[in-house]
């Protein structure tokens, strides 16, 4: 199903850029400044984890599992005891419950009747399965297998949009300073940013990717960056290695830094929380920590929202009918009492 692009009025409210001192762009593993091609990128990560589990001794039939891009990605809770996925509303009420891809009926949701038999028949607990999958996810990120596979075929997994160069330049022309903050190391960041920003501009000219940013920080280790942080170092762009010792002087445009903390950077650049707009897509690592800890303004990117709005508009009459039914039920229950 083709999803039309959102207009500027549907995708975001108006932001007065001239009132902001800094605009931060997060570039960690998903759709922020860099747009990874979906579902190719997620499928790559899925297959890497799947193969690693087989090497750990899981059944070879594990390789038969196929990534389903239509399955929900956000707003899910995993019950480690019973091995179920829970969809919750904003008040913590359970809306639906799934085991695998199968919905559990409400008349089978009594844990005293269905839970113990299921758990007792498992040779390995559901919790153990989740911990192993989570651990393998962390391992291939730490060892860089996903990043290595991405760089080996970068055009297959990363989008290149020539309008991005114009966007970054316009932000700076309007008086804002642009900051790139990433958990990735210099080698990966340099390769990716060179691909998306190092190509020919609309006027035919080319520029070094670092020229589009006032400040650049790699190996930020968010969300720790917003708390205790790490040592701030200068990165040698020839070797890609951080220097020994702390960086104590002012931050320089065109230079690349490693580590640090929000407190140190705010002091060096003289920015207060309300002066900063932070763009990211990770609710915990990007949005909650940056807003609650340091008071930054936040801009949350939700790629799935475009399709959600499209479906809502296309089926609006059905949603309106459901709302009428809910209102009628509310009236009936009120009269009964």
Automatic annotation (TrEMBL):
- Gene Ontology biological process: GMP metabolic process
Give GO MF terms, alphabetically: 5'-nucleotidase activity; metal ion binding
Keywords from the UniProt entry: Hydrolase, Magnesium, Metal-binding
Gene3D superfamilies according to UniProt: HAD superfamily/HAD-like
- Coiled coil ranges: none
Q: Which SUPFAM superfamilies match?
A: HAD-like (SSF56784)
Highest rank taxon of the organism: Eukaryota
**Pfam families, per database record:** 5_nucleotid
Keyword Transferase in record:
no
Q: Which InterPro entries match?
A: HAD-like_sf, HAD-SF_hydro_IG_5-nucl, HAD_sf
To which protein family does this belong? Answer: Belongs to the 5'(3')-deoxyribonucleotidase family.
Q: What is this protein called?
A: Cytosolic purine 5'-nucleotidase-like
Q: Which organism is it from?
A: Schistosoma curassoni
């Amino acid at each position: 199903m083709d999803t039309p692009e959102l207009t500027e009025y549907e995708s975001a409210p108006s932001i007065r850029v001239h009132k902001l001192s800094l605009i931060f762009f997060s570039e960690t593993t998903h759709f922020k400044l860099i747009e990874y091609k979906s579902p190719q990128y997620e499928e790559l990560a899925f297959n890497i984890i799947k193969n690693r589990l087989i090497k750990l001794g899981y059944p070879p039939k594990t390789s038969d599992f196929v990534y389903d891009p239509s399955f929900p990605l956000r707003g899910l809770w995993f019950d480690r005891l019973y091995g179920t996925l829970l969809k919750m509303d904003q008040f913590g009420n359970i809306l639906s419950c799934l085991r695998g891809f199968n919905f559990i009926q409400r008349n089978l949701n009594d844990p005293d009747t269905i839970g113990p038999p299921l758990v007792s028949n498992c040779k390995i607990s559901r919790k153990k399965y989740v911990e192993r999958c989570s651990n393998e996810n962390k391992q291939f990120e730490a060892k860089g297998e996903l990043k290595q596979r991405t760089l080996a075929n970068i055009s297959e997994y990363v989008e290149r949009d020539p309008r991005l160069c114009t966007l970054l330049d316009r932000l700076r022309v309007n008086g804002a300073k642009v900051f790139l903050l990433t958990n990735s190391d210099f080698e990966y960041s340099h390769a990716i940013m060179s691909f998306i920003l190092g190509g020919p501009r609309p006027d035919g000219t080319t520029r070094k990717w670092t020229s589009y940013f006032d400040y650049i920080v790699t190996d930020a280790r968010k969300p720790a960056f917003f708390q205790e942080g790490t040592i701030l170092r200068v990165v040698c762009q020839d070797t890609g290695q951080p220097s020994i010792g702390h960086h104590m002087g002012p931050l320089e445009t065109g230079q690349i830094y490693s580590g640090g903390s929000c407190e140190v950077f705010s002091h060096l650049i003289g920015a207060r929380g309300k002066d900063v707009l932070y763009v990211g897509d990770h609710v915990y690592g990007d949005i909650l920590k940056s807003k609650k800890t340091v008071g930054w303004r936040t801009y949350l990117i939700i790629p799935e929202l475009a399709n959600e709005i499209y479906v809502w508009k296309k089926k609006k009459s059905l949603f309106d009918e459901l709302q009428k039914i809910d209102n009628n039920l509310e009236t009936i229950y009120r009269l009964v009492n």
